[in-house]
Design brief:
Blueprint (H helix, E strand, L loop, with lengths): L4 H14 L3 H12 L9 H13 L19 H15 L8 H12 L9 H17 L6
Helix pairs in contact: 1-3, 4-6
Length: about 140
């Protein structure tokens, strides 16, 4: 049985990360497996080749899972989210979802996503949320 597309992709990633030239790579395939390309390998041979690459120092990386909500690295973006959540817990925000927050951000800044806002836009959003909290008598401290 032929190797899966994922196995073939791993082989080519390993080849690139190990810095193997095309000639060296094809020599390995020809000498060890008697095939001109990885597509000619069996599933078992692909596993053996990947283990060979691992023995030469290649480390397979696992795909990172996407989280349900975006990770905000900027402190002001996290502040926007924190104020939004506080307003939601106080009952001032009817819909506390990230989608609703993004709609609010778009209304204020014109940007479709909080991640795309610049400093000035973030300052405007934070000031607006603070004013909202004052109107609703929500303590942000």
């Amino acid at each position: 049985m032929a190797p899966s597309r994922a196995a073939l992709a791993k082989i080519h990633i390993a080849k690139k990360e190990l810095g193997l030239s095309d000639d060296a790579y094809r020599d390995i395939l020809s000498m060890h497996f008697n095939v001109p390309s990885a597509a000619g390998l069996t599933d078992r041979q692909a596993t053996v080749l990947l283990n060979t690459f691992k023995a030469k120092g290649w480390k397979e990386r696992r795909a990172q899972k996407k989280s349900a909500s975006p990770k905000y690295k900027d402190a002001r973006m996290r502040k926007v989210v924190a104020i939004w959540i506080t307003l939601g817990q106080a009952g001032a925000v009817r819909n506390r979802s990230d989608k609703a927050l993004q709609a609010y951000v778009k209304r204020l800044s014109g940007m479709n996503n909080l991640l795309w806002c610049n400093s000035r836009q973030l300052d405007i959003i934070i000031a607006s949320l603070k004013q909202w909290a004052l109107r609703e008598d929500v303590d942000l401290d």
